[in-house]
Specification:
Blueprint (H helix, E strand, L loop, with lengths): L24 H18 L4 H17 L7 H15 L6 H12 L10 H20 L10 H14 L2 H6 L2 H12 L4 H4 L2 H16 L13 H5 L7
Helix pairs in contact: 1-2, 1-3, 1-4, 2-3, 3-5, 6-10, 8-10
């Protein structure tokens, strides 16, 4: 991984805080998943493959010690594996070059020398390790389809002017994307996460769902009855 890591992050320094002390693991995972998201966008990955890459990363470190593995190498392998799982195949060379540019802005693509091939082999070997650790369970149900369904339903409930004026959908999608910085995707059902980010988006703008006060159940409870979408 040293071919693409920033100089200040070599030798495990990625886990150190501003004062040289070991930072909380959550802070490390936040930085690395941010890398996954930004690298994924530069690689042209869609939302679902990026979400899968983040989920694979978080799930791996639920089983493995952060001190035992380079988190950025795991992240690169997660991107590579997610591309296969979601049938958006990526070349390891592209992942390496995008990662190198991420850590070293303005740099040229890496030469196809021994360091490049060592890094490529490390990604492939790390992918095999991750598959074994995760027992080949790398397919996930994401909240995206639920959130889309809920937004379409909510749009019909709300006043058209309010819907057009207030960026509820944009905010909900942004909150969903940001949720992958942590391990929420591993601890809660997809539909529950979807309705939670929608609820929070409405709270941010102080929007009330019409007739909620007269309803027998809150609107969000209707969405979270653990039924599959048709």
């Amino acid at each position: 991984m040293e071919a693409v890591r920033p100089e200040s992050s070599g030798g495990g320094a990625v886990a150190l805080g501003a004062e040289g002390r070991l930072a909380p693991e959550a802070r490390v995972h936040f930085r690395v998943t941010r890398f996954i998201m930004e690298a994924g966008v530069k690689l042209g990955m869609h939302s679902i493959p990026i979400a899968t890459a983040c989920t694979i990363y978080h799930k791996f470190f639920c089983e493995a010690n952060l001190d035992a593995y380079d988190p950025y190498l795991v992240a690169m392998s997660s991107i590579y594996l997610a591309g296969k799982v979601e049938e958006q195949h990526l070349r390891t060379r592209d992942i390496i070059n995008v990662s190198n540019r991420y850590f070293n802005p303005g740099s040229e693509p890496l030469e196809l020398d021994s360091r490049f091939w060592e890094l490529r082999d490390s990604i492939v070997q790390c992918e095999l390790l991750m598959l074994r650790v995760l027992r080949f369970q790398v397919s996930f149900q994401h909240p995206h389809k639920y959130l889309l369904h809920y937004l379409l339903s909510l749009k019909n409930w709300l006043n058209r002017y309010s819907w057009q004026r207030i960026p509820i959908a944009v905010t909900a999608w942004a909150l969903l994307r940001d949720s992958y910085h942590g391990g929420l995707c591993l601890h809660f059902r997809a539909q529950h996460i979807a309705v939670a980010v929608l609820f929070l988006a409405l709270q941010v703008y102080g929007v009330e769902v019409p007739a909620e006060a007269e309803a027998e159940k809150p609107w969000w409870q209707i969405y979270t009855m653990d039924t599959e979408l048709p």
